[in-house]
Each structure stands twice: as C-alpha cells, then as structure tokens.
Amino acid sequence: MNQREIFLRHIAQTSGAPLGLEVVKAEGAILYGVSGKEYIDLIGGISVANIGHRHPKVVAAIKNQLDAYLHVMVYGEFIETPQVQYAKLLTDHLPQALNSVYFTNSGAEATEGAMKLAKRFTNRTSIVAFNNGYHGSTQGALSAMGNEYWRNAFRPLLPNISHFDLNASQAISSIDETTACVIVETVQGEAGLIVPCREWMLDLRRRCTDTGTLLILDEIQTGFGRTGKLWAFEHFNIIPDILLLGKALGGGMPLGAFIADQKLMAVLTENPVLGHITTFGGHPLCCAAGMAAMNALLEEHIMEDVKSKAALFASLTHPKIKSIRSFGLWLALEFDSFETNKNVINSCIGNGVLTDWFLFAPNCLRICPPLIISEGQIQAACKILMKSMDQG
Question: What beta strand segments (E) does the chain contain?
Fold first, then answer.
C-alpha cells in the first residue's frame, strides 16, 4: 500500500473527501509536497502558523527543551520552567485582571475548562452562546457551538444553553442573575468572518458586569496578531473575565489555555480538590515552542505589516467574487455557492496555493496565511487565485 492508501485505511476519517495532500516539509509560508511541488500556504494550519512554519527560534527552543526533559508530572504539580515563563510572558501582555493561566492541550479543552470555571465560580448553570459560533467539538464545546447541523447527531448535550444571533439585543436582555457566563468569539471565524458591532460588545460587557455574569472571549483563532493587534478584544475596548487561547499559542505545537484572574482560578483548588486536571496540558515542549513563537512575534514586529498585506488580498476583483470580508490578515472571499467555492479551491491546490472553506460559510474561501508571508508571495498567490477563479 502507498501512503494515501494507508491514510484512508488506518487514519480515522472525518470527511468523505479529505484534501489528502502529502506534505514532506514546511518552511515559512511554503508547504512542499512529496513530489517536490511547492504550495503557498493561505491556511496556516487554520491560524496556527502565525509566525510561519518552523520558525528558527521555535525549532531552537524545542531542541533545547528536548535536552532538558519532556513530560515529568501531571499539570500543576511540578514547577516547570517553560510553563512558568510562558505564563509570565502571556500575562505581561494582557490586562491586569488576566493574570492566571491554565494551560490545556487544545482550544476545545480551554473551552471546557472555562465553562467549568464559570459554573463553579458563579454557582449558576445557564450559559449564553451564539449562532454560528465555534468553540471546539468536545461535548461541552459542542453544546455551545451555534449550529444545529453539527450538534444534532450528538444530543443530548449540556442543558441551559441559549443561542442568539450576534449583535442581537435579545442576547443582552437575556443575561440575568441566573447566567453563569456568556461565551462568544471576538470575531466569528467559521461563520466567514462576522465582526460584532463595537457598541454591542460594550453593552455586552456592561450587562455581564451588572449581573455578575462572566464574559468568556474566544480568541483561539483571533489571538497572536491575526487581526493586526495582539488580541482582538483590543479593537473593542473591552476586557473579558476569561480568555480562551489555542492554535498559534503553541507555535506549531499542540497547546491551549484559559486565562482569568487568580481569584476565579482559585475555586478549582477546593470542593473538589483538583477541580480541573490534565496530564499533558502545558507540556514543557509545547510551552517552550509557544514562548519562542510569541517572543518572535513581538521582537520581529511581525504584526506591523498585517494591514498592508491584507490590503493586497482585499484588492482582488473577479466576477465570481460576491464580496470580501476581512479583519486583519484574515479574509473570506464569498462566492454564490459551495460548489463554486470548492471548484476554485481544487484549482488553487492544483495550481500551487493551499486554501479551504469555512465550516459555517461553505461558500466562502478562507485566507489566513502565516503573518510572515511576503508581499511577493501574496502577489503570486493572488495571480493563482485569479487563474483558479477563471478555471473554477
């Protein structure tokens, strides 16, 4: 059997039509196929490779940590330098109230931990979430997911979760003294880049404060410079009670986190003790890689060019494009149907550009390349996009 046959036979399949691209190397914004073909990466591992694939500082940090130790003890028991130092770096670049980090293995696990924390701290059970919101696909995160197509097959899910449209006044008026938390993406990603109204976000923050409800902002995709600022909530002049991170957090290694004030996190230490526990969360190798990636993002001023690079993509014009939505170096090209979009995507891959579609907006083509992508690579990718739209 060749690699593809083994992949289809022995790797659990979640789609009837996986991309099936065999990558043998990745560097910067380029992926290399088994035959040596190059692909300009416009996905970035779904907002994971913000500083590019295999950044030399990340590779060096991983190698250095390999020489020290890998897993030694379950989360929170030992003082592990990569965890401690990365938590310090993160909180140094966050508002004062976000001072305590709980590292997980993924963004979905961060969602799970945050939901438990909110219910435990408030002693409430009701949760407000949003239609077309995506927070992961584990049971709790799936319960908060705002799309019945993906939820329905796995019911019963968590009770007492209400879903509203983004920017809806009914969502704010529904929050009261029985609401444990509101969970919302700072910018809805899988909906095809839906940006909440700034005033609505301010009203949401005020209502949560007035009712003692915790505001959970999901920045699993929007964090680490994707929107042009380190954190997307900076665009809205609000501060969450709990912040969810993942994807780019690990610099290419699996890592997630939920971050809150220490007085909130303290409730996980008693009644019961070990109120939230994980074996591999905050793995030292992942934390070393993530810290190196964040330092590179900051020290190399990678976010400074986000706006100008996004403008190059946003200048695309073609009869098949109905609209272009963008927020930072993160764009959705809207077509008339999924079929049109999929044909364009297939042509792009054949022509040397990797892209895909959004989970809740299948008629929209995703552009979220590594932030270090060069202007020359963007121009080359745009030419291929135009050619692929002609073909598709």
Answer: 23-27, 30-33, 38-41, 100-104, 126-130, 161-164, 179-185, 214-218, 242-245, 256-260, 323-326, 331-334, 353-354, 356-358, 361-367
What is the full DSSP assignment across 272-337? SSSSS--SSTT-HHHHHHHHHHHHHHHHTTGGGGHHHHHHHHHT---TT--EEEESSS-EEEE-S-
Q: Outline where DSSP puts E strands in 122-160.
A: 126-130
Residue 293, classified by CB atoms within 10 Å of its CB into exposed (0-12), middle (13-18) or buried (19+), is buried
How many CB atoms neighbour CB 33 within 10 A?
A: 16
Q: Is the pLDDT of residue 1 over 80?
A: no
Cβ 134 vs Cβ 189: under 8 Å: yes
How far apart (Å, rounded) are the C-alpha atoms in residues 65 and 58?
11
The C-alpha angle with vertex 295 and arms to 70 and 325, in degrees rounded to 5, equals 110
Q: Is 146 exposed, middle or buried (0-12, 13-18, 19+ CB in 10 A)?
A: buried
- Distance of alpha carbon 17 from alpha carbon 13, whole angstroms: 9
d(CA 338, CA 358): 10
- Length of the chain, please? 392
Give 43's Cβ-side CA count (13 Å radius): 18
Residue type, 169: S
The amino acid that residue 85 corresponds to is: Q
> DSSP class of residue 86?
H
Closest CA to 68 of 54, 57, 82, 84: 82
Percent of all residues in the chain with a pLDDT value above 90, rounded to a whole number: 94
Closest among 221, 253, 7 to 111, alpha carbons compared: 221
Residue 155 contacts by C-beta under 8 Å, 6 or more apart in sequence?
A: none
Contacts of 245 (CB under 8 A, 6+ apart): 90, 107, 110, 219, 220, 223, 256, 257, 258, 259
Alpha-carbon span 343 to 99, nearest angstrom: 46
pLDDT at residue 104 above 90? yes
Residue carrying structure tokens 């996009």: 385
DSSP 12: P
Q: Tens of pLDDT along 184-241?
A: 999 999 999 999 999 999 999 999 999 999 999 999 999 999 999 999 999 999 999 9
Q: Is 217 in a helix, a strand, or coil?
A: strand
Segment holding 381, helix H or strand E:
helix 375-391
